Amino acid sequence: MTTEPAAGPPLRTDDLAALGDELVRLQHRRTTVYEGTVLEASAWRILRVLADGEPRSLRMLAGDLDLEQSTVNRQVNAAITAGYLERFEVPGAASRLVRPSARGREAYEHDGRIRASLIQTALDEIGPERSAGLIADLRAFNDAWDRAIAARAEG
Questions:
Q1: What is the rounded distance in angstroms from the CA atom of residue 52 to the CA atom of residue 74?
Q2: In this structure, is the dihedral angle defined by the CA atoms of residues 14, 140, 49 and 126, taken in order, positive or negative?
Q3: Residue 56 has what DSSP assignment?
Q4: How many angstroms separate the CA atoms of 84 and 77, rounded?
Q5: Which of 83, 116, 120, 123 could join 103 via S-S bond, C-beta 3.0 to 4.6 A?
Q6: CA–CA separation, 108 vs 43, rounded Å?
Q7: CA–CA distance, 103 with 83 (Å, rounded to integer)
Q8: What is the DSSP string of 67-136?
Q9: What are the pLDDT digits (tens) for 104-148?
Q10: Cβ atoms 43, 110 nearer than 8 A
Q11: 16 burial class (0-12, 13-18, 19+ CB within 10 angstroms)?
Q12: pTM, rounded to two decimals
């Protein structure tokens, strides 16, 4: 069942399309493999989730990555084969958990430094004032988007 948008001012389709285009460009940055990095995109994303130090089951990873569990299973198996992840048993748990291996942590830190350097270069180009404004505006936009989603879910 779909719900129609709430009544209000007309949608600014040019603004929405332009924002959509920029969000797609930004999303693409998350999956790009940059020169000098060692991880392919799916291993990077998995290690990024696991960087909080909490091992996860495949089901948990699938939720965190917003992917089908079968897709995550293939990606995890590839990362295990490459030596970036390891599975381990937890007494009393129904499924094994996944965590970064030492090689995976090292590769993640290596690639993270490259990505951070690229982001820093871009922020330096636009300057400290615009950088601070960008961060504040993205936070405000994400907060407003979360509120819009919550309001729509409430009915």
A1: 22
A2: positive
A3: B
A4: 10
A5: 83
A6: 9
A7: 6
A8: S-HHHHHHHHHHHHHTTSEEEE--TT-SS-EEEE-HHHHHHHHHHHHHHHHHHHHHHHHH-HHHHHHHHH
A9: 999 999 999 999 999 999 999 999 999 999 999 999 999 999 999
A10: no
A11: exposed
A12: 0.82
Q: Report residue 16: phi and psi, to 5°.
A: -65, -40
> For 68-101, what is each residue's pLDDT tens digit?
999 999 999 999 999 999 999 999 888 899 999 9
- With contact defined as beta carbons under 8 Å apart, do 74 and 61 qualify? no
Residue 72 exposed, middle or buried by CB count within 10 Å (0-12, 13-18, 19+): buried
Q: How many residues does the chain have?
A: 155
Residue 67, both tokens: 């992917």
Instruction: Give the bridge partners for 97, in sequence order.
Output: 88
Q: Which two tokens stand for residue 92?
A: 């009393």
The separation between CA 63 and the C-alpha centre of its own chain, rounded to angstroms, equals: 12
The tokens for 23 are 């969000």
Q: CA-CA distance, 97 to 88, in Å (whole number)?
A: 5
Terminal-residue alpha carbon distance, the chain: 13
- ∠ at Cα 106 (33, 85), nearest 5°? 80
Joined together, the tokens standing for residue 59 give 């089901």
